[in-house]
From TrEMBL:
Domain of life: Eukaryota
Keywords for the protein's UniProt record, in alphabetical order: Membrane, Transmembrane, Transmembrane helix
Transmembrane segment boundaries: 16-37
Name of the protein in question: Nucleotide-diphospho-sugar transferase domain-containing protein
Amino acid sequence: MQTDKTVSTGCRYREWTSLLLTAILCFSFIVYLYLYVDTTNITKAITFFKNIQGDPQFVGISGQSTLYPWKQRELIKNRTKPLLTLFTSWLDTEDKYLVHNITSVNWLALRPFVVPIVFTNEAAVGKVYARAGWLVLPVRVAAADGVPVLKYMYLDAMKQFESDFYTYVNSDILFTNTLVDTLIEILQNNQTFHNSAQSNSTSQHHTLIIGRRTNVFNITMEEGSSWSELTKVAKKKGELFRSDAEDYFITSSSYPWIDIPEVVIGRRAYDNWLVMNARKQKHQVIDASETILAVHQTTKDGNYEGMKKKTKEHNHNLLVTLYKNVQYSLGVTECAEYQTTINTGKISIIFRTNLATYCRIQ
Ligand SMILES: *[C@@H]1O[C@H](CO)[C@@H](O)[C@H](O)[C@H]1NC(C)=O
Ligand SMILES: *[C@@H]1O[C@H](CO)[C@@H](O)[C@H](O)[C@H]1NC(C)=O
Ligand SMILES: *[C@@H]1O[C@H](CO)[C@@H](O)[C@H](O)[C@H]1NC(C)=O
Ligand SMILES: *[C@@H]1O[C@H](CO)[C@@H](O)[C@H](O)[C@H]1NC(C)=O
Ligand SMILES: *[C@@H]1O[C@H](CO)[C@@H](O)[C@H](O)[C@H]1NC(C)=O
């Protein structure tokens, strides 16, 4: 009996152990699977977080600016106004959702130095971007079948928000901290420039900063939301676009936009006219191509979207009516009298001593 009992107990015992073992195995397997899947996520999350917090070049999705602390301290000092009011406008189309979402994250990351604004009369766009942290203003004046007139965007932005600089930028352009770094330098340089009386004309108090863009195909959210990634893809896959295409027009707060003709955005000719006019008016025109990285999100629509529109000649026709003969070639980036340059990390503004002959204003 004893033996039987032992045997049967042993047997039961063995059954128990194997059951327990199976259970443990099963449990471990589930835990392992869970952990495996989860750790890949955790690793991703950690990398992501490390990027946001540790890498000063990184733009957080939260939109918090992570500029170099010394620069932040230096600039914030006792200032209350932002450096730049940055505005754009677009018509809501599904095939541009990703492009605009990337722009949204990219521009928000330049806060608090930069204030992004979208001009729109479309409630859906206004709602989404206001929630994301953009400011939203209505398009007050439009032409050419509903395209915003450039000057009123500037005038409205200047009236409603105080900053050192203002600029319209095409909605598919992405920036890095080089935008902020360059503007800080120009601002600081401006004081020395005017104190040393190099300029004795008041028109030199008006500044226009322009530059060339770099085209990059099929930018992803990951690339567009990180300054270091964006810099990397621009270097690897980017192509510096032609020097007669200007996508941003950064002007000082006193700039006489009131006198500019009613050209619209997104149609050719106005960019070169603006630069040419500024040169003729003897404003301080600065080509910042060398220090501001402006990446164009090129999609399947290519690099000449405005040329496919029915009203593509709106600006040219208007300018020719007003001024007859318009020499657009005087308004290419390399004709700017000043340029920014960078030397071992230090940005400076230099006078261009030998402009090309085609830059000469008769
Ligand atoms: C900032 O403002 C405070 C108080 O007005 C002043 O004491 C300080 O010197 C200012 N700092 C700079 C860098 O201007
Ligand atoms: C981008 O934004 C639009 C709305 O503006 C939204 O419907 C869409 O899902 C967003 N995401 C992507 C990746 O396009
Ligand atoms: C203004 O500056 C130019 C050179 O930049 C100089 O030739 C001219 O004499 C100056 N005029 C006055 C009134 O100082
Ligand atoms: C970009 O993506 C499109 C598909 O939307 C593809 O046809 C095209 O080849 C891509 N271009 C490059 C340069 O990767
Ligand atoms: C540069 O200085 C002049 C003279 O003080 C001023 O009128 C102008 O607004 C300044 N420009 C910028 C961009 O601050």
